[in-house]
Design goal:
The complex is a heterotrimer of chains A (344), B (305) and C (352). By secondary structure, chain A is an alpha/beta fold. Helices cover 30% and strands 19% of the residues of chain A. Chain A has two domains: 256 residues, Rossmann fold; 66 residues, no CATH class. In chain A, strands 6-7-8-3-9-10-12-11 form an eight-stranded mixed sheet, sandwiched between helices. A four-stranded antiparallel sheet of chain A has the order 2-1-4-5. In chain A, a hairpin with a 3-residue loop joins strand 11 and strand 12. The longest helix of chain A has 18 residues. Chain A is globular and about 70 Å long. Chain B has 305 residues and is mostly helical. Chain B has a domain of 164 residues: MetI-like (MetI-like fold, Orthogonal Bundle), CATH 1.10.3720.10. Chain B is built from 14 helices and no strands. The longest helix of chain B is centred in the middle third of the chain and has 36 residues. The radius of gyration of chain B is 24 Å and the shape is flat. Chain C is α/β, with parallel strands linked by helices. Chain C has two domains: 220 residues, P-loop containing nucleotide triphosphate hydrolases (Rossmann fold, 3-Layer(aba) Sandwich), CATH 3.40.50.300; 103 residues, no CATH class. In chain C, the strands form two sheets. In chain C, strands 6-7-8-3-9-10-12-11 form an eight-stranded mixed sheet, with helices on both faces. In chain C, strands 2-1-4-5 form a four-stranded antiparallel sheet, with helices on one face. In chain C, strand 9 and strand 10 form a beta hairpin. In chain C, helix 4 crosses helix 5 and helix 7 packs parallel to helix 8. Chain C is globular and about 65 Å long. In chain C, 56% of the residues are buried. The chains are: A alpha/beta (344), B mainly alpha (305), C alpha/beta (352). Chains in contact: A-C, B-C. Chains A and C meet through helix 5, helix 6, helix 7 and helix 9 of A and helix 7, helix 8, helix 9, helix 10 and helix 11 of C.
Chain lengths: 344, 305, 352
């Protein structure tokens, strides 16, 4: 449904947010993008929504390249619904929820933008997201974070889109509400046979929500594959490190906060170069606090590492080859690909 | 950082050039014949025609402008029609006089306005009172305030000189007028910025460190107030230097504003042009200075440019 | 953790704490103890009152907040001290780690100075000495090239490094109590892992007590010795962390644990376990148990009577684990499987 073919995105000022990214969201299927800040996943969302254009490579929607004109984009946008992270920012506080939810109808010239028929339509959508009986003329300020996300979801679905893009839709919500919203999205996706692009930093969550996962780091895709495999047996060292960084599920199994003395490899496997004594992966000298090197300084992985593996400076397994050559995406049978010379 | 400054300098120069063109064109909209202004008692048409020819007034506009601009670049601002002296010599001392007033005015408004702002931010009980005071000062026209002060201190109480001049004693009232009129702006900025700082997370951190209140105010709060205040000072100095006309007229302060007004009446074009140019340069210059100062005070702005 | 915690006064002792903002009763009759040198996790969501409780103990709430109750830090009663007195003892008693390090650091002052002023003001050091002490403090939180970093401004550092600076400030004078307000919530998971490792190491070395606010049960599992769960301004359960994880007594705690468990090990494609409804807004004051509307075990008495915090009695007959308390009329038994709260179809009514 949505395809990224060798897409790169460089912002003015030289920041390379995406570096030769290839992804594919199949019609009726689901794709998850997992990564931390700076990974490029938000840029992918912006490109997919047509909010930015790729510097190179090709973006496709339903087989055709993304239109260049605003008119063309508008036609395409009718078929894309999206839910973004911040429920407090994504709804105009001066519009009633009726106006908010029906806005896509007005923009795309679909019936129901206003009038009694529109009221019924909006009420129906709200009921579908669990807000049955809500006052159409209420304002977003009346609702909690979870409530607002429901409104946002109603808005996303009202134009009967073919694709639903969710960018960290639950990260700003209370824990006890997150699963409700995720379940809502899953139900909606199933009932309407939507293709879903789900972006998050939570590896556990993504495993429950999508079929295929792409792990991103420093603007590149480092591993893709079926969700259970990515979670259960990662092949790229970053994926594994991400996995290991997740806190324990029971105090008995705690590892992260164990002191360096008590446990030999107590810290996150491999990543914590500067925390742990004894690691041999010393970073480039002169970069203050290398793990946390501020991306806006010269250490932007993309630009500095065009001809090397983007994760090499933090990887426990890195060899000199990793620093001199960029590993291509290698596919294995089992539907997985990874960009690594020495996978797990 | 340097790149940004150079860019601003270039734009500043372009702005000045634009002002010159505009002022030149406006001159020609003003009715009146400069030849008659120069020689008001001349009766012979021939004399007037000669004057016009001498001043190249019969040439096409473009030529006159090119002439003027060419002279400008050589540092020659022309000669006053009325005073028959080089414009620079006429404007120079007046500029200095206005400069003194401008500086005094800015100092006054920063002190008065800043104090109001700090008090309003720290003590909620006086906030309403200061707010009312600000509103009053904003509403009063500058010449009314000036005249009132002159009336009160000059005539009624007799402690301020009333007959114009540029001495220290004569400086007090006009500077005070400027100060009072400009104070509300500073009060507002200072109060807003301080309130924002006081409520901020980093002040809470400072409190959590157990630092004394006075230290927190000095080191953490006031620093963040400086940045917007500096911008305003730059703007004010620039605009005052182009002539605080009303104040100069009310108090007969022999500055560049008074000169400009009189010259307009007399159709003394070269002087008028000269004052306009000086004004434009002053505004651009002080804005640039303010930018540079701000970069020192607020490190975040260093990267922006 | 370390030896003989019973000999030292508790790092924090809160008794009958109430916090009100106008008519909103944010914290209700809270009693909490942080034993010396141990980590107590304070768990809750928005509106639970966890931040208010901690900030009230640290006296960092705005003056418009009405606070009653007793607070003792390292055995010293601080509720009676006036502002000036408390300010003087503050740095030696209490360190704070804020949630958003970017907002919590002054943007126009280099970070080294922000650490150094602690030493200058409290340890009476002069400028040069304080600067050196600041660099040492930054090195202690494992910042490489601490001297160079000390000259930088907060916006020039990454999120993880800023958080380390906050930690450095909090632990600089080795106070007996450190209050941490969700310090890792806004961080990437790998950065969070580093900070947790750092805290673990520092804690072992310093023997400070921690009051760690969070909503993330994983962080609780990693760090805490004790856990206290808050809901609608009340502490609804508290106890040793293993007990809480193995046999939670309050349905809300059970729900939180199950949510996480299901997320990690549930079947792909199956709906996620969810607690129905949503947390009450701060202004609401239902007469009974605040969790009743969302609780599958609720009965009439739950709607009418607000349960108090009582020790949990289990079949062992010995009054349950030491210190395990819950506020529930029908506490969950120790061998519960998946709770009945896994309702499909998410329903929420708009708040009036």
């Amino acid at each position: 449904m949505i395809g990224f073919e060798g897409v790169s995105k460089q912002y003015r000022g030289g920041r390379l947010a995406l570096d030769d990214v290839t992804l594919s969201l199949p019609a009726g299927g689901s794709l998850g993008l997992v990564g931390e800040s700076g990974s490029g996943k938000t840029t992918c969302v912006r490109l997919a929504l047509g909010l930015a254009r790729p510097t190179s490579g090709r973006l496709t929607f339903d087989g055709a390249t993304y239109p260049a004109s605003r008119r063309g984009l508008r036609g395409m946008r009718r078929r894309i619904g999206f839910v973004l992270q911040d429920p407090y920012d994504s709804l105009d506080p001066r519009m009633t929820i009726r106006q908010i939810v029906s806005e896509p109808l007005r923009i795309h010239g679909l019936p129901g933008g206003s009038g009694a028929r529109g009221d019924a339509l909006v009420a129906e959508q709200l009921a579908a997201v669990g807000l049955a009986g809500a006052d159409l003329h209420s304002y977003p300020s009346r609702y909690s974070g979870g409530g607002r996300q429901r409104i946002a979801i109603a808005r996303a679905l009202i134009s009967a889109p073919s694709v639903l893009i969710c960018d960290e839709p639950t990260s700003s919500l209370d824990v006890s509400v997150q699963s409700q919203i995720v379940n809502l999205l899953l139900d909606a996706g199933r009932q309407r046979d939507l293709s879903m692009l789900f972006v998050t930093h939570d590896l556990d969550l993504i495993g429950r929500v999508v079929d295929t996962v792409a792990v991103m780091y420093g603007g590149r895709v480092v591993e893709t594959g079926p969700a259970e495999l990515i979670r259960g047996s990662p092949r790229h060292h970053y994926t594994k490190a991400l996995h290991d960084a997740v806190p324990a599920d029971h105090p008995r199994h705690r590892r992260l906060a164990a002191t360096a003395v008590a446990v030999g490899a107590g810290s996150v496997a491999g990543i914590a170069g500067d925390v742990e004594a004894g690691t041999t992966r010393v970073p480039d000298a002169g970069t203050p606090g290398q793990i946390d090197a501020e991306p806006s300084r010269s250490a932007w992985p993309g630009l500095d590492h065009r001809d090397s593996c983007v994760f090499a400076s933090r990887c426990p397994r890195a060899e000199s080859r990793c620093r001199q050559e960029r590993p291509p995406m290698t596919a294995d049978d089992g539907g997985r690909s990874y960009a690594c010379f020495y996978p797990i | 950082m340097a790149r940004g400054l150079i860019r601003r300098l270039v734009f500043g120069l372009i702005a000045i050039a634009g002002v010159i063109v505009l002022a030149f064109l406006l001159e020609f909209v003003v009715p009146g014949d400069p030849a008659k202004a120069i020689a008001p008692r001349a009766t012979s048409l021939q004399v007037l025609a000669n004057i016009r020819a001498q001043l190249h007034l019969n040439q096409p506009l473009i030529v006159q402008f090119a002439d003027y601009f060419g002279n400008l670049l050589r540092g020659n601002l022309g000669t006053s029609y009325i005073q028959h002296q080089p414009v620079a010599a006429v404007i120079g001392p007046r500029l200095l006089t206005t400069g003194v007033l401008a500086l005094a005015g800015v100092v006054a408004e920063v002190i008065i306005g800043g104090s109001f702002g700090i008090l309003a931010a720290l003590y909620s009980r006086v906030r309403a009172l200061i707010g009312a005071l600000n509103l009053t000062l904003l509403a009063v026209p500058i010449f009314v305030l000036g005249l009132l002060l002159l009336l009160l201190f000059g005539f009624k109480l007799g402690i301020a000189p009333v007959s114009g001049g540029a001495g220290a004693a004569e400086l007090v009232l006009p500077a005070l007028t400027l100060g009072l009129i400009g104070a509300p702006w500073y009060a507002q900025i200072v109060a807003d910025q301080m309130q924002e700082s006081l409520a901020s997370s980093y002040v809470r951190t400072a409190v959590s460190k157990g630092l004394p209140d006075s230290y927190i105010l000095r080191r953490h709060v006031l620093r963040n107030v400086l940045s917007p205040a500096i911008t305003m000072v730059g703007l004010d100095l620039g605009s005052y230097l182009s002539g605080v006309v009303t104040v100069e007229v009310v108090f007969v302060w022999p500055g560049i504003g008074l000169l400009a007004v009189n010259s307009l009446h007399n159709l003394d074009r070269p002087i008028v042009m000269g004052t306009v140019i000086v004004g434009a340069v002053a505004v651009v210059f002080f804005n640039l200075v303010a930018d540079v100062l701000r970069m020192f005070v607020d490190p975040r702005t260093r990267e922006e440019v | 953790m370390t030896a003989e915690p019973a000999e030292r006064a508790p790092a924090l002792e809160v008794t009958d704490l109430n916090v009100r903002y106008g008519r909103v009763h944010a914290v209700r009759d809270a009693c909490l103890t942080v034993p010396a040198g141990q980590v107590v996790a304070l768990i809750g969501e928005t509106g639970s009152g966890k931040s208010s409780l901690a900030l009230a103990a640290a006296r960092l709430l705005p003056s418009s907040a009405a606070i009653t109750g007793r607070v003792a830090i390292a055995g010293r009663d601080t509720s009676g001290l006036d502002r000036g007195e408390f300010r003087r003892v503050r740095a030696s008693l209490l360190g704070c780690i804020a949630q958003d390090a970017m907002a919590a650091l002054n943007p126009v002052v280099p970070v080294g100075r922000q650490v150094g002023e602690l030493f200058a003001c409290h340890a009476g050091m002069r400028r040069q000495q304080a600067a050196e002490a600041a660099v040492a403090a930054l090195a202690q939180v494992k910042i490489r090239h601490p001297a160079a970093v000390a000259r930088l401004y907060p916006h020039q550092l990454s999120g993880g490094m800023r958080q380390r600076v906050m930690v450095a400030i909090a632990v600089a004078l080795s106070p007996p109590l450190i209050v941490a307000d969700e310090p890792t919530t806004a961080l990437d998971v790998s950065t969070q892992a580093e900070i947790l490792a750092l805290i673990g190491e520092l804690q072992a070395r310093m023997c400070s007590g921690f009051l760690w606010i969070t909503h993330d049960m994983g962080v609780v599992a990693e760090l805490a010795d004790w856990a206290a769960v808050m809901y609608a301004g009340r502490i609804v359960e508290q106890g040793p962390v293993e007990t809480i994880f193995d046999a939670p007594a309050h349905p809300y705690t059970e729900g939180l644990l199950w949510t996480r468990r299901d997320l990690r090990s549930g079947a792909a494609g199956a709906p996620l376990f969810q607690i129905p409804g949503s947390p009450p807004s701060p202004g609401e004051e239902p007469p009974g148990c605040p969790f009743a509307p969302r609780c599958s075990r609720a009965t009439q008495v739950c709607v009418e009577v607000d349960p108090g915090l009582e020790p949990v009695r289990r079949d062992g007959g010995d009054g349950g684990s030491f210190g395990h308390k819950a506020a529930c009329h029908h506490p969950v038994g120790p061998s519960a499987g998946a709770p009945a709260g896994s309702v499909q179809g998410s329903v929420e009514g708009p708040r009036p």
